[in-house]
Amino acid sequence: MAKMFLSGNEAFAYGIRLARPQVISAYPITPQTIVVEKLSEMVEDGSLKSEFIHVESEHSALSCAIGASSVGARAFTATSSQGLLYMAECLTYASGGRFPIVMMNANRSTALPWNIYGDQRDSLSQIDCGWIQAYAENAQEALDLALMSYYIAEHKAVSTPFMANLDGFVLTHTYEVVDVPTAEQADAFLPKFETENKLDLNNPRNLAFSAGPEHNTAFKYKEHIGLLNAKKAVDEAEEKFTEIFGRRYTGLTESYRTEDADYILITLGSIAGLVRETVDRLRKQGKKVGLLRIRYMRPFPNEEIAEAVKNAKAAAVLEKDISFGNEGTVYTNVNSALHKSNVNVPTSNYIGGLGGKNISADDIEKIFDELSEERAKVQFIGIGGDGK
Fold first, then answer.
1. For 77-101, what is the mean pLDDT?
2. Percentage of residues in the chain having pLDDT higher than 90
3. What pLDDT does 388 receive?
4. Where a domain ends, among 196, 228, 245?
5. In this structure, how many other beta carbons lie within 10 angstroms of the beta carbon of residue 112?
6. pTM summary value
7. Cystine design at 108: which of 13, 71, 81, 217 (Cβ 3.0–4.6 Å)?
8. b vs e for 233-271, b when ≥16 Cβ sit within 10 Å of the residue's Cβ?
9. Sheet of strand 314-319: strand arrangement
10. What's the pLDDT score for residue 387?
11. CATH number of the domain that 347 lies in?
12. CATH code for the domain in which residue 8 is found
């Protein structure tokens, strides 16, 4: 294992190289570009043996990956923002076809107004498309997630495409020291991709067919079960990952100082690092606060969230997303989880970071202070009465 100074994008590219995809379909879009650029260099210098296909659009990128997966090849692509929305038609083809493609999405605001900076409205707008969705906090997790995503997606009980999300610029373009595993370690962790769900001249089968009302629900049910099965596959992947690499992850969520917390802030992605630091600072002041980081939005960690929050006096969801006309998408899902487990804790929703707007430590501390009011509300961070 070697230490390297990498950006989140570069770290993810190194993780993908270790996974040895056989086909990479690439269409660069800011702030994802560096991932496919780095992979193209790896293919060119021979350190990665893969078919690198530079396609004409994001729609074509995912279509190409679907075609590769349909013949049993391990496939990778990447996108961001409007590119992900342009792919939207293909997302359900990949999930409905049970093709375990891995795609990295660099989270970025969606137009209009036109904006290249990071929020999570792109991926969260596609949360119902049947893909596994994970959110990395830092570059190390990004690299590790690149490897684990194939293990999970290709698991025989799952066979579902995987969208790994990295916050645009905040994570994709910032650098940190990362442990890069050896190829031998990666090969010991990730088995060769084998599937019966492929075109095979020796064993002909029908793929991507039509299904009318009599059979459609059965296929959708199986797709749903595959996503639910991903929870056990995540646990299995992380256990094996710890054995080989020595780094431990905690499943669909990560709890930090929540055991005795009166007030808990729930979030996802890179902002969790700043929340964790704020929790430590407030703990030194005698305030019983905690962090619950959602690592996977699909499958959704209903039981884990309810268990972490059940003894708190109040909780808040901080997210870089808004479902216009209602509330944040993450907040809706969190409230559903609490309701299903009969956890009666006041919750509030804080919308921040849209279009890359900074969320400060003071903002987070203010959220914890307001939680002591123990009343539900939906609030935009940094919006005053004049709308600025």
1. 98
2. 94
3. 45
4. 245
5. 6
6. 0.96
7. 81
8. bbeebbeebeeebeeebeebbbbbbbeebbbbbbbbbbb
9. 253-256, 289-294, 263-267, 314-319, 347-351, 378-380
10. 42
11. 3.40.50.920
12. 3.40.50.970
